[in-house]
Amino acid sequence: MRELNFLAAALLATCLLVGCAPRRPGEVPALVHAPDARAEVVQTTAGPVRGVASAQGRAFLGVPFAAPPIGALRFRAPQPPAAWTQVRDATQAGPACLPRYRFGQKHVSEDCLTLNVYAPPGPAPAHPRAVMVWIYGGALELGSNVDYDLSALAARQDVVVVAPNYRLGVFGFFAHPGLRGEGEGAYALLDQQAALRWVQGNIAAFGGDAHNVTVFGESAGAWSICYQLASPGAAGLFQRAILQSGSCLASDSSVPQREAESGGVRMAQRLGCARRRDVAACLRALPAETLADAAPQRRGLTGSDAWAPMSGGQALPLPPAAAIASGQHAQVPVLLGTNRDEGRLFAQLLSYIGKLNLRSGYEARVQRMHASPAPVLTQYAAVAAQSRWEAFADIVTDGGFACPARRLGQALRTHAPVYAYEFDDPHAPYGLLRLPFSSALGAFHAAELVYLFQRPWVLSGQAQFSPAQQAFANTLQDYWGAFARTGDPNGSGRPPWPRFDGDAPLTLSPHRIGATPDFVQRHRCAFWDARADTATTSVQPSSQ
């Protein structure tokens, strides 16, 4: 999985070059600025919050679900927020969590543990609505709940949608022996669990059903949900899960405690916090920017410069693959899938920033991604002879997304219903990045989001759907909404979606919704399944 972190980092690096900065707090959702917007106050367990209601829906933004993880609370499990008595403004989203790549943003902070709530318009229903909790992606190093306008999903599907922030990068995944017993190495996962506990205690006040909660996420958000399936701390906090373009069965999906702590010790030494007796206090006293800027120096300490949660600790007692293989995971209905051309976006980005030289760099890039690259190069030799760009994209799609998702579905289906899909619109609106080039990206990574949310999101402009694409967007969203309400995506007026039988997923396309008989062959899953535990990033340890 760490090679996917690297590729996501390439996307972030491209953003640095072309300036695709996240939206500012308050820009999402549009209903906040609607002409008929009016104030609405809701009482939470910590105090009253004033959001916005209009004919488009209701929104409560920047609501604290945990105490600020700063000072003495840095590198600790999230704590409950302090109560307040005066009505708190909830019409502006809180800052993004301080990431490794800040793009010069002003609206980022270590004090970031807030969530946004979106609900349909009108009074509270006679029966509580299903709840969907969105976990955003971003390689576990970037992203924010303000990047997504979830109001249309809430209104059209008649659900309550919650979008929490969670700590990123060094703040979310740092481990050190001096931090044992305090959630070390997986603070981000504990933040997500704290948000889910907030839902349990508060969502009824927003018209939601605390006993009907679906977690859903894309890319690193899907990784996070996969981790939560394997985390004892998340037990009972959700009843079903949707994983879009992400899984966690690779051997490097988590970092063993010894390895994670070793990397933390070396980083602490670099930062002048070497003595174990006072290392925790020293690390907590450092400026947040110092820690964020030091994070890239971590390269090599745990095999790569990518962050992943620690296994062997509070959040993940077992590696996710071991927990799922042994049945020690949340046995809930799951909807999961990938996009047909996931890797094309990454190939394009690497080409753009000069990290994938199509003449001489293809083999080197594959060698960087895989500990045993020769079989991979042989498997894709015929494709590479025609186009090394296409071969690299296929390797990423097949080995990083399609086949791992299929394996995860196979593991989960023995305990609960699984519905699997492959998103396949070859003409998906290309607004993900405003790059000075274009290519046939097909159904690229994250292309389904604008269909699901039917709103622009942080890295896109306004989607220009054809009539067929608009109808498909409605159908796709209806599948997701039905699954959130009942655990089954099927319903009147939609093509049937059979349970995953362990073989191939359902194709979701504007032009066809049906079986995908060529999935296993097209994505070379027999090859990737055979080497499932050997495809890891190979990076030499740093000498620093």
From TrEMBL:
<dbReference type="Pfam" id="PF00135">
    <property type="entry name" value="COesterase"/>
</dbReference>
<dbReference type="GO" id="GO:0052689">
    <property type="term" value="F:carboxylic ester hydrolase activity"/>
</dbReference>
<protein>
    <recommendedName>
        <fullName>Carboxylic ester hydrolase</fullName>
        <ecNumber>3.1.1.-</ecNumber>
    </recommendedName>
</protein>
<comment type="similarity">
    <text>Belongs to the type-B carboxylesterase/lipase family.</text>
</comment>
<keyword id="KW-0378">Hydrolase</keyword>
<dbReference type="InterPro" id="IPR050654">
    <property type="entry name" value="AChE-related_enzymes"/>
</dbReference>
<dbReference type="InterPro" id="IPR029058">
    <property type="entry name" value="AB_hydrolase_fold"/>
</dbReference>
<dbReference type="InterPro" id="IPR019819">
    <property type="entry name" value="Carboxylesterase_B_CS"/>
</dbReference>
<dbReference type="InterPro" id="IPR002018">
    <property type="entry name" value="CarbesteraseB"/>
</dbReference>
<dbReference type="InterPro" id="IPR019826">
    <property type="entry name" value="Carboxylesterase_B_AS"/>
</dbReference>
<feature type="domain" description="Carboxylesterase type B">
    <location>
        <begin position="40"/>
        <end position="528"/>
    </location>
</feature>
